[in-house]
Amino acid sequence: MRMALKCIVIALFCSTTVFAQNKKLLYDFYEIPQSLMVNPGVKTSQNWHVGIPVLSGISVQGASSGVTVNDLFANDGIDFTTKVQERLLDVMSNKDDFSFTSQIEGFTVGFRGKNRPDDYYSFGVYGEMDVISYWPKDLAILAFEGNGGNNIGRSFDLGDLNVRGEMVNVFYFGVNRKVGADLTLGARAKLYSSIFQFQSIKNSGSFVTAQGANNIYESSINADMQLQTAGVKGFYDILEEDTGTTRKDGKSLFSKRVLLGGNLGLGLDFGFSYQLNPQTTVTGSILDVGFIYNSKDVWSYTLSGSASTDGISVILPDDINSVDNDLWQDLIDEIDEALPHGVNEKAYISWRPVKLYGSIRYDFGEEGSPFSDNCGCAVNQDSGTNRDYYRNSVGGQLFMMKRPKGVQPALTGFYQRRFGKAVSLKATYTIDKYSYTNIGLGTSLQLGPVNFYVLADNLLSYSNVADSHYASLQFGFNIISWNGN
């Protein structure tokens, strides 16, 4: 039980900054090789690319749908207890979430097929961490206000507890194929190597305190709850031992899990780009259609059943000398026995958070190719696919992501401007559950064979990040060959 509580507390603590997985600035930014990661079917013009190990793709994104750090900790003269009541308990709902996502590429390589120049192959490894915790509104009220006073007779929903998290290493191989003058398709296979995973996402039940028959109040609980973990106990045991080799043992276990030594899973990505006419393109992709089979280092805690108690019954003055710690322990033992709970090591499947992208882009401002005549980018020159080059692009993007409490959508409008072959800028405006004023800006710089990109979201919030509901930063370095050099 103690471990279960620690897992939940750690998850909630890690989630105080919220991270989302919507990479709207990177999507369809085909000058950047990493755009393949959000659409395997994106337009590819390079002959080959190699990412700088570890630095080719680093992504950190943050948001909060309910409260900001500044709301609670600003030095505004308002009592902290009042802030908690007015800015947390009174405002946030059980659909507000705290989440965390980060991604680091170990390495990435892409190359065009020698015998099939219409095919572009890519492979690599990246690590990803994703944690989401929904605001447990009823449980927070119960903890803050207690079950007395105005809460007598109120049914507190135990299903408000909803948390999920994982750290996973991903090995992938993808193929991007030009199947015609107007259509590009892409697919990518993934092998997941789980470092740890935990979830408590299908809870139900209630806790009610009402007027009692044998005592003043009677409290009743009806619960069907479960916390599943895989890979957590191994790290927990190392920390609990607290020996002189704790750090070494932790690193060894982490390395083993990274290199396919833990729970494994499979996944698929699909994407396409279709040119409706020389200036209009529609794209779409679906990512992480996959699962992890958790069978190693599994530790799950269950709480299922019903129990009622009217507390300790004391008849005064006869029992005045009998009120001691034994009575309290008897009460705890009674509840513990009445409410079935336990630990098991049953294997379970955890599903990856599926993501869906779609866009429509209109290009205008035609000029000659930004690259040299023999750049290698006009692989399908006879078809006219890369014959034309436009300085400007404008369009819209849709993003949807499967989360434990439903689909999380976002809508983005964008404008992209290219300055020759060296510089490309992209600006976005996004509306989602976190912000209605999210303006982002990204740039891709091509300095000879070296490509550097940086993408940042919600620029208006950077003057006071602590008061922001969303923040995002992505950057990376690649070596790109446009002509085989």
Structure overview:
The chain has 485 residues and is of the alpha+beta class. The protein has one domain (2-481). 16% of the residues lie in helices and 48% in strands. The protein is built from seven helices and 21 strands. It has a 21-stranded antiparallel β-sheet that branches. The longest helix has 16 residues, at 246-261. The radius of gyration is 27 Å and the shape is globular. It starts with a helix and ends with a strand.
Helices and strands in order:
Blueprint: H1 2-14, E1 48-51, E2 58-63, H2 69-73, H3 80-89, E3 97-112, E4 119-134, H4 137-145, E5 155-157, E6 163-178, E7 183-200, E8 204-211, E9 217-230, H5 232-241, H6 246-261, E10 263-277, E11 280-294, E12 298-309, H7 325-338, E13 341-344, E14 348-351, E15 355-367, E16 389-403, E17 406-419, E18 423-432, E19 438-447, E20 450-457, E21 470-481
Antiparallel strand pairs: 1-3, 1-21, 2-3, 2-21, 3-4, 4-6, 5-8, 6-7, 7-9, 7-10, 8-9, 9-12, 10-11, 11-14, 11-15, 12-13, 15-16, 16-17, 17-18, 18-19, 19-20, 20-21
